[in-house]
Amino acid sequence: MIVIVNGAGGRLGQEVLKAAKSAGHSVVAVDKFGSPEAVTYKNLCDYTGEADVVIDFSSHLATEELTSYVVKRNLPLVLATTGQTPEEKEMVFAAAKKVPLFFSANMSLGVALLISLVKKAAFLLPEDDIEIVETHHNHKADAPSGTALMIASAISDTLGGRDIVKGRSGLCKREKGEIGISSIRIGSVVGKHEVMFGDGVETLTITHEAHDKALFAQGAVRAADFIVKKPAGLYDMQSLVEEYNA
To answer: Annotated catalytic sites, by residue?
Structure first.
């Protein structure tokens, strides 16, 4: 398989190059600043050779260029960036009608499994208070994390729609049924997500902790292997987990 890696010069892009090569795939690196791991094209449009899939670890600002490129070339896309604006998300959804597109706020299979578990817990414990605590390094720009929002949305959907509260301050009593998210930014923590269910008698905590960002690169390559065989449509890590469980 020939994998185009967009954003190949960044730390995660370099990890994707390594993971793809380790899996026996050929790679094409794209990054305007170059990459120490491979010969690099500055722009996606500069590469017109053979390819089977595109993995993007650049920026949400590349959404328009990416979606146009994969639609024009009829290539599957693994979109591993977050922070898309509503307009950019519409570009993603439109492209997914024409090509297979894997879009996830977190490329960790472990996080996907966590979401499966918390959905089961929510179904069995619908009256519990539910709180999410996410911890990341002190350079992370967005809060709450995209992964925490993804977890909260999955729980909310399971319970028929619940309010999601992002942080608390002042005199604000916790409302029954809401899903709370708290964010911590400290040191060099790669990423930790804790989901707590409590009824006053006992507390259940389900936790995922990332120790190395390389896991996201490995997950992206796994997603590429998964999506390259699929028809046009929108896929995510839950799609991958459900296929394993089938």
So the answer is: 136, 140
